[in-house]
Amino acid sequence: ATRPEVVGEFGGFAGLFDITAFKTMDAPLLATSTDGVGTKIDVARRMDVHDTVGIDLVAMVVDDLVVCGAEPLFMTDYIAVGKVNPERVAAIVTGIARGCEVAGCALVGGETAEHPGLLGDDDYDIAGAGTGVVDAPKLLGPDRVVAGDVAIAMASSGLHSNGYSLARHVAFNIAKLDVHDQVSDFGRTLGEELLEPTRIYSKDLLTLIKAVEVHSISHITGGGIAANVARVMPANLALDLERSTWTPQAIFAWLQAQGNIAQSEAEKTFNMGIGMLAFVPASAAQLAIVALQACGVQAWVCGEVRERRADEHGDAEAKG
């Protein structure tokens, strides 16, 4: 996973990236983000499948970068293991490289560290950091959102990489299932469903930003829809979210039913079927949906922005 700006043959202690081309911007801003994939690692270990969590890692990093309008440029990764298993490490890195290809960014370096005595022989964790660039006049954010804007939802691929402490507790401790057990609701094994990689939206969103006027974007991760929407909207505005406009994937209803999880708790923990929300003028909604569908992203209008009432509390009002 590389880009032409990557500079090689320099000694191997740091990654180099040529940013000369970005001097044409009015005021280039570097954006940076770092993340991991949390306890989804446990599912990979139970399945002994390690070539997808790297995709999750890239998604969690680059999709945080792109919400401000930044193009992801490069990533570095960090893999901590109890004992180096070359095949497993290679599988993890393969996933990271594949994710970077989908995201359009370069993988310019990484570190694998062995922690005997601290981690068990089969234990590992991964983290990554990414850098992107955006021209200051094109920076997206809450200040651009106005009453009358509509929210364009983009379907998630499933749980993505959030809520796995609760999902694992329900699946393994309450339902007492094994990752290899078939679940009819999913049409595949529990492990295959839980290990479904996080969707990488960076190229799709950059295409959207070029196609229509986008005001702000929210990456729906930990905290769910309401908490993440609040981060990209002015305090004096509210989003009326029309729940009737979509049906979350089977995994969400299954977890709620098996774990007797209240709707409010589920919505604070999971993405409930939406990976990204983009706020655009109502007049641009249809073109936005067409542009995203052309990228293979299922998208729809899921709500409208309005002025917040004086007595109103909360982030996103539920309707329907």
Describe the structure.
The chain has 320 residues and is an alpha+beta fold. Helices cover 31% and strands 27% of the residues. The protein contains ten helices and 14 strands. Helix 2 runs parallel beside helix 3 and helix 6 packs antiparallel against helix 10. It starts with 5 loop residues before the first strand and ends with a strand.
Tell me, rounded to a whole number, the average pLDDT: 94
Shape: globular
Structural classification: alpha+beta
Question: Strand arrangement, largest sheet?
Answer: 10-12-7-13-11-14
Q: How many strands, which pairing sense, and closed or not: the largest β-sheet?
A: 6 strands, mixed
Number of helices: 10
Our measurement of the CA-to-CA distance between the termini, rounded to an integer number of angstroms, reads 44 Å
Multimeric state:
single chain
Rg over CA atoms, rounded to whole Å, is: 20 Å
How would you spell out the order of helices and strands? EEEHHEHEEEHEEHHEHEHHEHEE
Strand content: 25-35%
Strands, total number: 14
How helical, in percent, are the residues?
25-40%
Provide the low-confidence segments as ranges.
none
